[in-house]
Amino acid sequence: MLTIDAKNVDFYYSEFHALKNISLEVEQNKVVAFIGPSGCGKSTFLRLMNRMNDLIDGTRMTGSLLVEGEDIYAPNVRVDELRKKVGMVFQKPNPFPKSIFENIAYGLRVNGIKDNSFIEQRVVESLKSAALWDEVKDKLKKSAFALSGGQQQRLCIARALAISPKVVLMDEPASALDPISTAKIEELIYELKKDYTIIIVTHNMQQASRVSDKTAYFYLGELVEFDDTTRIFTNPQKLSTQNYITGRFG
Amino acid sequence: MRHLEQELKALRQDIIDMWKLVISQVSTAGDAILTFDKDLAVQVSMREKKVDAYELKIDNDCENIIALNQPVAVDLRFVLAVLKINSNLERIADFAYGISRLVINHPTLILDAELAVNANLSQMIEMVKTMLSQGLEALENENSSIATSIFNEDGQVDNYNNEAAKIIAEYIQTYPDRAYACLQFISVFRKLERIGDHCSNMAEEIFFYLDAKVLKHSPKQ
Asked: Which residues, in sequence order, are CB contacts of B13 under 8 Å at separation 6+?
């Protein structure tokens, strides 16, 4: 079964036609990179996958978007349940003003889990999965704000993993980080794809080529090309894709 | 023009200049062996270092472009193709140098002019010069179709080489006292045959760069 199956998706911000007839399939345990110039629609499309755009007035979507075979825009879908399945990590690390431990436990508690030993176990597992455990295991009760930017971002990834999602959406997760922290996030993405399907929006071409299995190039709201990353970065089929990735664009 | 485009443009000019120099080396070495003109052979020998300098510079420039600019798509294919063409051109120049050394080291070696004619030496030299020029033209005009004929011509160069071996073997049987000169002579054909192979390799690289096709180890028709 496909993890993501978008068919003929159009999306509007009031009158503005932001996404035009997007169809795209994502297989399980793959990393897909969305690339394209600012305003091309890649983040808009990413945010459709856990209905983050619902929060914006005047938006409208047509077409269908399935996550693990379920139409996530069907009337009976509970958005809080969807977001358990589809986690998200944002450009700027956004830890809660709580301890490191509580940042991760919070999502579990909100979802009704009261078993403290289970919560403790998930916190440890999530921190290990996010490659942060060794750095924070002795200071779990300290504020998350005491961590570096790169550590905070990995904490946010751990927080997303704690509720066992199927898909992790990442919107430029390393753009605010230094090269060492960026490398750790990229290594982490590589490890995480064993257990999760990951979709990452990035402006960094080298990052897209390093971490992803497939790459989707968006331009002016259209999906111009979607193919294996090796092919996109060695022999793209569309001139527009080539011009963008080689920096000749515009 | 962006910085990377400037770097690629300079690299392109360098490989074109090197290519022209190597054509000149092969042409002069060919004239030297056909006429046994030692002065021409010395010219080739003296210019060999210039070819080596090009090779080192182009290698270094490719390494820097990859490390500093991380080219992708057509730019990456161009840099990779230039790297390989660079090695092939250097080897071709080595063969031209080898032919010139033969003339320099054996100034009294007299070859039977009729044997050179019968073995099609002149035609074989012209053929590899044509192949080299076509390869350069394909790169300069970014037109892979120009390179297509190189694969056929490589086959013809192989035929010339095989025929020459038979003709020279018969000649040795007739004139056994000239065997040493003939063995030197046959190495010239072998070098020209290898130049043909390198031209074919470079044509494959031009296809890779322009059409993203890998033609290595596959039928070229």
From this structure: none
- Is the CB of residue B74 less than 8 Å away from at least one CB of chain A? yes
Inspect the interface and report whether the beta carbons of B73 and A206 lie closer than 8 Å: no
CATH number for A232: 3.40.50.300
The reply to whether A245 falls in a domain is no
pTM exceeds cut of 0.80:
yes
| Interval A219-244: pLDDT, tens | 999 999 999 999 999 999 999 999 99
Binary contact (B71, A233; C-beta < 8 A): no
Q: Is residue A191 part of a domain?
A: yes
Longest dimension (CA), chain B: 66
The answer to the question of residue A183 being in a domain is yes
CA-to-CA distance for A78 and A99, rounded, in angstroms? 29
B136 vs chain A: nearest CA distance in angstroms? 23
| CB pair distance less than 8 Å for B73 and A248 | no
ipTM: 0.74
**The architecture CATH gives domain B3-211:** Up-down Bundle (1.20)
Q: What is the dihedral of CA A183, A189, A191, A197, to 10 degrees?
A: -170
